[in-house]
Amino acid sequence: MRPTTEVIIMLYEETFLDNADYQKFQMYRSLKTIDNYSFTINDLSLQMQIYYQQTYNTFRELLMDMEDMTGETNKLAKKRLMSQDNFPVSVDEYRLYLLENSIQFQFVNYLVQSSSLSVDKFCQDRFISRSTLTRKTVPLRKLLAEYDLKISFTQPAIVGTEQRVRLFLFAFYWLGYHGVRWPITAIHPQQLNTAYSKLPTRKTSPVAALQEVLFWGICRLRIVRGYTINEWPEYDDVFRSVAAMNTPIYTKDMFPKLDEQTLTAESKFFHYQQNRQLRFSTSQASWLELYADIVSTDNPVHTYITRLTSFLEQHWRADAPIAFEDNMVLITNIMRAAMSFYMIGGNYAKISDFFDSKRNLYPHSELYAALIAFHEGLPDTTPFSTFKQNAVPLTLTLTYMLTPYLQDFTWHQIVRCRVLLEHGDLNAYRVIKFLRNMSFIQMMSDDDDVRDADLIITNIDDEPLFSNIDTSRQTLVTWHADATDDDYFNLYLLVKKTFLNILGLGDIQYTRV
Fold first, then answer.
1. What is the CA radius of gyration of the chain?
2. What region holds the Mga helix-turn-helix domain (predicted)?
3. pLDDT of residue 1
4. Strands 150-152, 157-159: pairing kind
5. Which run of H or E residues covers position 28?
6. Would you give the DSSP letter of residue 257?
7. CB under 8 Å to 392, separation ≥6 — which residues?
8. DSSP label of 255
9. Whole-model pTM?
């Protein structure tokens, strides 16, 4: 039975920007990614699917922001044709500019970084009322509730378990600043970089290292402000006997006022951060150590993973390119999600929560329904209770991770595609390779019946072979040898539309990737 639980989607910019600023951000992202070298206001209007006058007004406000950021007067308002070269500010820089002028973004930053907190003073300094602040933070508070967090206005703070607070703050600062600037004013980044470079577990990837330094800065700021992690028994349930996951990160010299138990718990939390992020490299270095650490002992995550993988193997195609049990990258990523839900005690802020805009489609899939049924069927006893109680957020996370492997499962919600082009034609090879990269397509073999196909691609559509096409459920595409980039893009949109029809969502329109 298909679950009807509402899936809440709160994209980052929608949470922290007012509607007018959010529309300016969407416009700037559109004009920085528009295909044409030269474009007009009308092109932007069509791209954003809004009225010309609204587009023009938003564009004028955007130009004023550009002038404020660059200090240069912009003459574009008088130009009919524009290009991306006319807008040197990056999308990340403009997003941060809008965020730093947003009340809700400022308020979270204020709660975290100010040493003396007063909601009344915050409002007075910005010439707003307390009720305005309350109204503007409604989406934010709705989002925080998903992670069992809340904002206290009487004693200003983000309230909840410290692990959940820090994971939210990491997503908040990483997505907001995204490497444009260092966000934490009380801590100098060079000091952190020097300390981080001495860690034996430091990352070699510059982006991963940037993330970990930011996370470390957030942790240190929270410790200095008096918000510490004093114990973490759920971590010990999984990694108690793993020496590498219990080496000290923090010492008494760094924080003389912290006792040994708190220093140990804080070190564990940083080890957790270094191992929780999804990784898709097939190199053993990206999965082997964590996988071995979890399966080497009898622990709650190992027990859950054994049960889940056994369930998923039942739905894995026998002719898939790799056996499920041999897909170590996928299994280890599932372990990362499982250990996070167990150790945190439920849902928590994940980077994907803020950009996975297709999440509302998941409950319409057989994959999602099967995973919900699996979790609801778990025993109520330890170690399964945490996973069962968080069936919806955990299933959303797993569906996000498993969707790229849809074509390897036996569920029927897949676009079955039959390609009928001349053998030995390089054009045929290119389009087949293009289609195989879509997880929601299953390529049919030469022996499969054309009548079983949802999508047929050919360059001989006038043959009697296609005279009995069922147009109510089958789509015939004529593919030419001189196919252009636009042809490939339109083919993607057609496949996506076909997939949505199979999900029963044919009324959803896709105009962008």
1. 26
2. 90-173
3. 35
4. antiparallel
5. helix 19-33
6. T
7. 3, 5, 7, 372
8. -
9. 0.91
